[in-house]
Amino acid sequence: MPDPSAPTSEHTARPVRVLKFGGTSVGTAEGVRNAVRIVCAATEACRPVVVVSAAAGVTNDLVRAAEEAQADPATAEAWTRRVGQCYHTLAANTLTDEELRARYATALQAELSELHRALRERAGPNAAAARDAVLAAGERLMVPLLAAALDAHGQVSQSVDATALLCTDAAHGDATVQWAPTRRRVRDWHRSRADGVPIVPGFVGGTADGVTTTLGRGGSDLSAAVLARALGAERMERWTDVDGLYTRDPDEHDDARPLERIDFDQARTWTKTGRLGMHPCTLDPLIDAGIPLRVRCTHRPEVPGTRIVPAPMLA
Ligand code: ASP
Ligand code: MG
Predict the structure, then answer these.
(1) pLDDT digit string (tens) for 113-162?
(2) Residue 71 near residue 103 (C-beta atoms within 8 A)
(3) Of 68, 212, 280, 295, which has the maximum CB count within 10 A?
(4) How confident is the model over 219-240, as a mean pLDDT?
């Protein structure tokens, strides 16, 4: 059922697509470069909104960092350096242009001092909020890196603050998106936004007071789905390290066949058992709005992947 208050073609000449890149997609220089090519190609056909995860493994580190800093604030220093090193190396391998590297280094420093501050706050009275500020750093560090990589390709982009867009309750670590204010904020932002491809850090939201929250592990998928629904997107694309869904696990069964399409009911069952590797609530906003999801491989963009569609579209 189309949402009558969704932005229509009057507002946007081309349809919106939400492209989400997971941690294994953007965890290497090659992955970031592939993501850039995919985004640039998408601009030919649609108005992409990009959602990024933290580089693979970083959120796990941040979870540990938050834990250790609460017990011993002196560990904040070493953790900040370690996370900084990871992104510094990724940027050094991805960006060849001196100026873009310098620009990223400035953004990196600013985010790292926020991370350091949040780690130190773990021992204080706002420990739960500080933990979310720590966890959000992985995604927040990725946004300016992808922006610089797009710039190197001549693609203008716009870094977006998800805290101001995805409105959540204050259940730190597993916050629930508040649909009505989120929809309003996302649409207001989209209507008045500057030119360029928006890059949104996944997994991150904010309370009505603007305090950073996170949506639970794997939450970037949900961020993308919520944005897709709020924007009346034509579809969501989930770019990952697998080239789609199979009838059986292709690593274990030679007769596994790739699936071109499955319907939402099937996908929902598989999401519950963890087979799709997505945040368990990802499909809800898409099903509500009848927005199809495509699972595609960042490293093999020529493979069509699998479409997850409303049942009538299967026919
Ligand atoms: N970086 C977060 C996590 O690892 C969110 C995500 O990747 O979807 O859980
Ligand atoms: Mg994930």
Answers:
(1) 999 999 999 999 999 999 999 999 999 999 999 999 999 999 999 999 99
(2) no
(3) 212
(4) 98
Other C-beta atoms lying within 10 Å of the C-beta of residue 71: 9
Matching residue, tokens 């508040």: 178
- For residue 23, the ligand 1 atom closest to its alpha carbon is 7
- The protein residue whose alpha carbon is closest to atom 5 in ligand 1 is 218
| Closest approach atom of ligand 1 to CA 53 | 7
Nearest listed ligand to the Cα of residue 138: 1
In tens, the pLDDT along 212-229 reads 999 999 999 999 999 999
Confidence at residue 10, expressed as pLDDT on a 0 to 100 scale:
40
Q: Which atom from ligand 1 is nearest to the alpha carbon of 54?
A: 1
Ligand nearest to the CA of 220: 1
Ligand closest to CA 57: 1
Pocket around ligand 1 at a 6 A CB cut-off: 22-23, 53-54, 59, 138, 202-203, 217-221
Q: What is the pTM of this model?
A: 0.94
**108-119 pLDDT tens trace:** 999 999 999 999
Residues 6+ apart with CB under 8 A from 76: 65, 69, 116, 119, 120, 122
